[in-house]
Write a structure and sequence with these properties.
Elements: H1 2-13, E1 18-24, E2 36-40, H2 43-49, H3 54-59, H4 63-70, E3 73-74, E4 85-91
């Protein structure tokens, strides 16, 4: 859910001066090895340059491979501490 949220947000903040981070405090996000992902206003452009379509990854529920290809996953390993998800939204104005 965290990586999917970050990918959904990436589409909405494309070409802006914004960034988002979404991660689970336990270091896990579903069944992927990542706990979350980061995205900014350049994420979608970087993906397009690699021939990746964000909507295809959202439709396939495969946001992990999208962010992994960009190097934007958060992979801390299991933290043994689950106090909810963390989401940060930054506006650089």
């Amino acid at each position: 859910r965290n990586q999917a949220f970050a990918l959904y947000a990436a589409e909405r903040i494309a070409h802006s001066r914004r960034a988002v981070l979404s991660a689970g405090t336990d270091g896990r996000d579903g069944n992927s090895p990542a706990g979350g992902a980061v995205a900014d206003g350049e994420t979608i452009a970087r993906a397009l340059a690699l021939g990746m379509n964000a909507e295809d990854y959202l439709t396939a529920s495969d946001s992990y491979h999208f962010f992994h290809a960009l190097g934007d996953t958060i992979e801390s390993g299991y933290t043994d501490n689950n106090v909810r998800d963390v989401r940060l939204w930054l506006d650089f104005h």
